[in-house]
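$ ./design --mode recover --in tokens.txt
reading tokens...
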């Protein structure tokens, strides 16, 4: 467990895009942690990347939301060769199932208690 408090990605000025990736993992997670860490490093290099939120339910549903300034940034991430290889390995090994939803954000705001 970490001492760092959870902090969501802040609201951004719309429009921007989100990619919502929901997963149920398989039992075979060999290499997942290292690849996940690499993907988090790699996506930060994409111009227009705004951040990422992660959540895991007690029942095993994983949710990752990636935020991108525009469709071009999202397309760059989708087509990155290393990311594509990780996607293939995910389908072959790490995931029982997944869904991907991509949406254009038209409204965004946030709140933080002092």
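writing sequence...
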């Amino acid at each position: 467990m970490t001492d760092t408090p959870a902090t969501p990605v802040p609201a951004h000025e719309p429009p921007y895009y989100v990619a919502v990736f929901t997963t149920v993992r398989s039992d075979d997670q060999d290499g997942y942690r290292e690849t996940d860490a690499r993907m988090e490093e790699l996506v930060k290099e994409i111009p227009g990347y705004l951040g990422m939120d992660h959540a895991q339910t007690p029942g095993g549903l994983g949710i990752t939301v990636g935020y991108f300034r525009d469709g071009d940034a999202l397309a760059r991430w989708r087509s990155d060769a290393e990311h594509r290889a990780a996607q293939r390995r995910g389908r072959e090994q790490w995931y029982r199932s997944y869904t991907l939803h991509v949406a254009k954000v038209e409204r965004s705001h946030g709140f933080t208690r002092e």
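exit 0
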